[in-house]
């Protein structure tokens, strides 16, 4: 599994970012080390970062997440100081969003390249209308906000349409549950919001799913091909139809008018 070193000038900020990310992990979490603050105060320490990297020597790879530019400089120096030899990348993605996206992807067995890409593109989901001109050059993870019907599914594809019934729609927690659900399948489904035309988005990318901008009442088309396509599509559809465990909230609102 991929490990993480969270580098921040502020120890409370680093631990809060990690705590938020871990709220989105369902099952085994990837190893995370925090290298924050310098001499118990504010700043970064290259030696502490190097030690954190070495503490993850058994990981398949390490992604370093940083808060400010000088943290990147300290992390680059740490790469020269470390003794371990596992592959390491320094993420250029946003600190909080990148930590959440990367850690969720790593928890499902993503490679270092996949985890790094997810963290780097974590701001895409914060666009008011999903993807727009400001993020068009970011090469999002197959979450194109374009014609949902432009590419018909393959002849052997398993396709199922399901309606979002939970009050907030496809927000962070439901997206992370979908990522977890498809982690064990060879056939990774895609989701297309047929209501707003966004997608397809790969079901193993939390950021791509959030970029759909799918809200309550929207119809999601779940599509997959491959040996276990029916099972993977069924797993996603079951989550949606159950309201991701938030269905009770919707019923409560209806009961109270």
Structure explained in plain terms:
This protein is α/β, with parallel strands linked by helices and 257 residues long. It has 9 helices and 8 strands. The chain has helices at residues 11-22, 46-54, 69-81, 95-107, 112-120, 172-182, 206-210, 229-241, 247-255, and strands at 2-8, 32-36, 61-66, 88-90, 158-163, 190-193, 198-202, 219-224. The strands form 2 sheets. It has a 4-stranded parallel sheet with strand order 2-1-3-4, sandwiched between helices. The chain has a 4-stranded antiparallel sheet with strand order 5-8-6-7, covered by helices on one side. Helix 1 (11-22) crosses helix 4 (95-107), helix 2 packs across helix 3 and helix 6 (172-182) packs antiparallel against helix 8 (229-241). It is elongated and about 55 Å long.
Q: Short description, anyone?
A:
Helices cover 37% and strands 16% of the residues. It is built from 9 helices and 8 strands.
CATH topology name of the largest domain: Histidine-containing Protein, Chain: A
Helical content band: 25-40%
Mean pLDDT: 87
Proportion in β-strands: 15-25%
Structural topology:
Blueprint: E1 2-8, H1 11-22, E2 32-36, H2 46-54, E3 61-66, H3 69-81, E4 88-90, H4 95-107, H5 112-120, E5 158-163, H6 172-182, E6 190-193, E7 198-202, H7 206-210, E8 219-224, H8 229-241, H9 247-255
Parallel strand pairs: 1-2, 1-3, 3-4
Antiparallel strand pairs: 5-8, 6-7, 6-8
């Amino acid at each position: 599994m991929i490990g993480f070193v969270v580098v921040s000038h502020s120890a409370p900020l680093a631990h809060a970012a990690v705590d938020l990310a871990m709220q989105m992990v369902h099952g085994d979490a990837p190893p995370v080390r925090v290298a924050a603050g310098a001499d118990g105060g504010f700043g970064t320490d290259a030696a502490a970062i190097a030690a954190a990297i070495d503490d993850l020597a058994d990981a398949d790879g390490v992604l370093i997440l940083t808060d400010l530019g000088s943290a990147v400089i300290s992390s680059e120096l740490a790469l020269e100081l470390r003794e371990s030899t596992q592959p390491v990348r320094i993420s250029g993605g946003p600190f909080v969003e990148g930590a959440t996206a990367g850690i969720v992807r790593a928890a499902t067995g993503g490679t270092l390249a996949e985890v790094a890409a997810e963290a780097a593109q974590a701001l895409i989901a914060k666009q008011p209308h999903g993807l727009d001109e400001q993020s068009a050059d970011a090469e999002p993870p197959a979450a194109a906000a374009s014609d949902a019907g432009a590419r018909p599914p393959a002849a052997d594809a398993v396709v199922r349409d399901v309606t979002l019934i939970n009050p907030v729609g496809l927000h962070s927690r439901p997206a992370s549950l979908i990522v977890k659900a498809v982690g064990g399948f060879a056939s990774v489904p895609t989701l297309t919001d047929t209501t707003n035309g966004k997608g397809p988005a790969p079901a193993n990318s939390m950021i791509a799913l959030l970029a759909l901008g799918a809200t309550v009442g929207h119809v999601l088309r779940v599509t997959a091909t491959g040996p276990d396509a029916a099972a993977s599509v069924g797993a996603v559809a079951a989550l949606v139809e159950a309201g991701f465990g938030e269905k009770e909230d919707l019923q409560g609102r209806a009961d109270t008018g």
